[in-house]
What we know:
It is a single chain. The protein is mostly helical. The protein has eight helices and no strands. The chain has one domain (about 20-180): Orthogonal Bundle (Multidrug-efflux Transporter Regulator, Chain: A, Domain 2). It has helices at about 20-25, 30-40, 45-50, 65-75, 85-95, 105-125, 130-140, 150-180.
Amino acid sequence: MPLVQYFPGTKVPVSDECLLTGIFRVTSGITLSQVCEITGLEAGTIQNWVKRGYVNPPTGRKYKKGQVARIILINMLRETLALEKIARILSYVNGNLLDRSDDIMDDSDIYQCLCDVLIPAERRGVIDIREMSALIDSYLKDFEEPYTGAKKKLELVLKIIMCAWESAYFKRYAAHLAEGI
Length: 181
């Protein structure tokens, strides 16, 4: 079983180009059906997340880059964490969903950071939590805090997300191994 087949939280095969950059280079927003195609989620699931306040509603029936990133982040974490916990984790770094001024890092940048760290690490077979933490620290070395303590909050959330992602990977891998029994 290959370690990395798809961008985390999606049904899009991994490529050398950043997932969100590639999509939003050619459009300012995508439709619900396109989000569903990317993530493998049902439309009703995404609409429920919007209704519950986990994702901002689309503007003019189009989802923007940050909204798509939020949907992907929730999707990649829901295998190991409850939705309420995921919302609390993402709110820890981005406060009020409707107020972008309190964000430490945009959801699309959080997702990009995760892809930049997870995909190469998994390709090399690096699943060690200490090494993953070191990769996060290295990735954020030049991060400029919007306020004192913001970087520590962001590091914690990234480490939580990576641990949850890796635990989901191990769960899937165990199921794959069990198929041989």
